[in-house]
What we know:
Shape: globular
Distance between the termini: 25 Å
Strand order of the largest sheet: 2-3-4-7-6-5
Mean pLDDT: 77
Radius of gyration: 15 Å
Strand content: 35-45%
Amino acid sequence: MTNVPKIKTPAAHILRTMLCVGTLIFTSNVYSASGLDNASGVFERTRRYVVNVSSEGDGKNNKVGSGVIIGQNEVLSNCHVIDGASRFSIEFFDGERAQATLGRRVVNLDLCTLIVATGKRKPAIVAPLKSIKVGKKAYALGNPLSLSGTFSDGVISGMRKVDDRIVIQTT
């Protein structure tokens, strides 16, 4: 990417292209090596990486959305979930809650990181970009409107280069 501040995390190059509207896309090839090549298996294995993000501002800017664990104390979310807020909290899959602070912002990609104050979590496992192919099975997992564990499936329907980045389309 040119002229775009990079979020420096091993998985960030894939997550930048895959986190859309608070949903993380998992492709079946990420987990098939572990025998988790069916929808139920992928859901069970990946739901622990998706979190609820709550942001509080001046009372008018309270928002909720999804995020994904990308580092031991780092969560990636969409900037529109946290814009205008001064306080952030994360709720993990197991119900644990933690306060967070704003990390990095890549506004033109609508991606922000939050640094979690406590706890060390394992980051999501991400497939190399070269292994993601049109026609492969894909799963979307997120928490729209705080409806935790919303899960759907589809396929990778296209991969395009837009403004020096790869955009992955799903159906």
